[in-house]
Amino acid sequence: MLKRNLWKLTLSLAIVLWALSSLLPVQDRPFPDYIRAEASAKTAEFADLLKEAEDRHAARQAPSVFMALKTIGQERKLDLASYFPHLDLGDVRNLEKRNAILLDHLLAQSKGRLQLGLDLKGGVSFTLEVEEEAMADVPVEARQEKLSKAIEIIGERINGLGVAEPIIRAVGDNRIEVQLPGVNTKDNPEVVDSVKKPARLDFRLVHPTLSPTTSAPGQIPPGYEIMTLDDEARTGEVVSYEYFVKRIPDMTGESISDAYPATDELGRFRVVLRFTSEGSSRFAELTGMIAEEGRRSGREGLLAIVLDGKLYSAPRVQSQIIGDSAEITGRFTQREAEDLANVLNNPLDLPLRIVEQYEVGPSLAADAVASGRLAFIIGVSLTAVFIIAFYTTGGLLAVCAMALNVLVILGVMASIGATLSMPAIAGIVLTIGMSVDSNILIFERMREELKLGKSLPTALEAGFEKAFSAILDGNLTTLITAGIMIALGTGPVKGFGVTLAIGIFSTMFAALVISRLFLDWAINGLGIQRIRMVSILNNTNYDFLKYARPAFIGSWLVVAIGVGALVYKGKEVYGIDFTGGDQVTLSFAQKVDLADVRRVATEAGIDDLNLSYTQQIGSDSEVLRLVTPFDQADVLVAALQAAYPAASLERVGESRIGPSVGAEIQANAAWAVFWSLVLILIYVAFRFEFGYGIGAVVSTIHDVVITIGIFVLLGRQFNASMVAAILLIMGYSINDTIVIFDRIREELKLNPNGTLRQLINRSLNLTLARTFVTGGTTFITAIVLFTVAGGEVNDIALTLIIGVITGTFSSLFIACPVFYWWHKGDRKHVEKHHDVAPTYEWTGASKASQ
To answer: Would you say 407 and 20 are in contact if contact means Cβ atoms under 8 Å apart?
Structure first.
């Protein structure tokens, strides 16, 4: 047995150990403490240096110890790498760059691997204002369009920085607020500059014969200006060169289709540029002109590459360059090269300046975080108890695999730099609830094999073999949805798609490799002769199709009512994440707990609210920021002042803010749903038959629309988390439907004499136990979240409660009846278009072993 499972054991251990290493350290370590422990040479001297840096920070001469060390190194030309000989930086000759790379690395290593989101930990917030001169000639009606475009570009840049779940929204008609989780400008001050940099790229001609060093002082050729290029010599010293560079560019960044960082043969970072087709032609024409001029003058021509008015490089042009790429070289660190490529890919045409900069506290109160943690523990525990109660020993082993599954999900999130927010925690809890489905499919198949009189080892092999196609098809259809979200989505849509994709791969690995390894070890290794399984809804013989027509009509009447409610309420169904609202800043003499602020808001009839404590960088004063629906801020402020007179809450600022879920995110979410449905139809038609695809798509549309309708009828509003929640319902619905369709396909092959009606009813009865147990585990988890947690998590839980009910209903009374009606109840019509169920290379071996 060990020999047969050695590769599974080795792979499982490797992945689990990798996940553990990706999560360590779990928490941030204070940078001074970490760097003091890491110094391995001249430790006493470094301790004095660190003490000086701490004193500068305490005296407010530096925003952080990190920046104080960097400044001291620059002032005294210190080689900080000499204190850390175990970190090999010998290939970086420039002292300033070496210190920057060293400190960046040490800062990153001091951080916990899995960073928390804005709601749990806070981050940095800054407000950017468009310079008035840039908007002076822009018509009023066009200003909003330019601001929206700037918000879109900033969002793309932040995604390029690897910051997950940012908040970006308009404030008034000329400001943009950006909130970044897990970031602080004390240690990373350049993050703001990289977001607001215009990134105007020019290719300009350098004068072919004249230079400032050979010309008389003050004599500049007409149409040219003096520009300085800082280059790094072999010794690591910075050498400056001056050139006469043409003022008017001969080619601009509009000709660039893509930019990315790379390294040369010496390991130095550069930025590679890819041209558009028009850009390639223009670049060939430009370099050909420079080369021809160089041949005439007898001196090689130069082409200046200028970014935001700074000369980055001036490569020599010996001949015409025909191709689709060029490069920018300079004294780049890896971060600088990545940032430069990022802004070049997303150039801003509006100059922005910083008008406010805050450190943002967590938006969730301590009790909300505690309730979320409690919901997580209870939800996971109940899921474990539920599956163990039904499948005893097998369930216990499945729970162990499920725990390793969660570990792998968190490890992958940490390795890709994802942030862990409360909605993300809820998503993990719900993923756990649904991830047991693969194990349930296997156990139910094993139960069927045992009823046929097969031995436990044989039932194990057959259970995995027969459940494989349903597990594969269910997860691949969900993966299609995740892929579309990643490709088309932005903000929460894309983030949810990434999380969903991680969950799909880790769940399949846990079910097909780890669970099988555990079960094989228990049955074939320890010699367990029996696994008790509680029987429920077995040997049923319900005629589901008998009730299909009235159920179908009644269900779509509910859909119509829900759609009617949506139309009637109109924009009222959108929360402040979609519509924007009023933002008020309050000073205080005594801090009011955020949970108490929410309670007062609820009593005042304000359910939709964003709030946080913020502190302006460089100041000790803290303020309370409230965001309410339009025209409700005054009501809330008055209620808070009346409830907490000792707090002395005073209004110090107010403004109208735009939505954090803009039109682009909404449009991308809609397109993601549309293309997901199209690709699901194509996949199911390819793997099964077109009628199955129609049934799957109709039932998925039904579940999404009815869930939204009931959610609105219950008086809830849509906010950012609901976009992900609706997409989650799609994944749950299609997975449930695919399992039943897979059984119908199998029954068509096993029962050549049965009618289509009989086979559909038989398939629904055979999978009823699995439907009940899977739906039950997910439903229990959702109920716990709904009962214990509040805010966004409560909304997601309510959506899933509705979705589990409607998804189960649609699998029984929508998807299968639509498939039945599509083929007019005729089995021959199905078989005419039906593909034979796929076989796999291990099928023959499994049957032979039986």
So the answer is: yes
Distance CA 632, CA 541 (A): 57
**260 near 288, Cβ under 8 Å?**
no
CB 331 within 8 A of CB 97: yes
Residues 78, 74: Cα–Cα separation, whole Å: 7
Q: What percentage of residues in the chain have a pLDDT greater than 90?
A: 19
Say if residues 416 and 179 touch (Cβ distance below 8 Å). no
- 226's enclosing H/E stretch is strand 224-232
CA distances from 225 to 201, 240, 394, 497 (A): 17, 16, 77, 50
Question: Around Cβ 316, how many Cβ atoms within 10 Å?
Answer: 13
DSSP string, 193-253: HHHH----EEEEEBPSS--TTTSPTT---TTEEEEEEEEE-TTS-EEEEEEEEESS-SEEG
CB 551 within 8 A of CB 698: no
- State how far the Cα of 405 lies from the Cα of 400, in Å rounded to an integer: 9
Q: CA of 847: how far to CAs of 2, 461, 754, 835, in Å?
A: 22, 9, 25, 22
641 beta partners: none
CB of 676 closer than 8 Å to CB of 730? yes
Closest C-alpha among 749, 752, 717 to residue 835:
749
Rounded to an integer, what distance in angstroms lies between the CA atom of residue 590 and that of residue 599?
A: 17
Token representation of residue 346: 């997303």
> Taking the model in full, what pTM does it have?
0.72
* Residue 545 per-residue DSSP state: G
Helix 720-750, helix 422-451: angle, nearest 10: 10
**From the CA atom positions of the chain, what is the Rg in Å?**
31
Q: Quote the CA–CA distance of 551 and 540 in Å, as a whole number.
A: 20
Q: How confident is the model at residue 481 (pLDDT cuts 50, 70, 90)?
A: confident
Confidence of residue 660 (pLDDT cuts 50, 70, 90): low
Measured CA to CA, the distance from residue 213 to residue 243 in angstroms comes to 8
Structure tokens given for 538 = 């077995």
Nearest to 430, CA basis, from 37, 793, 40:
793
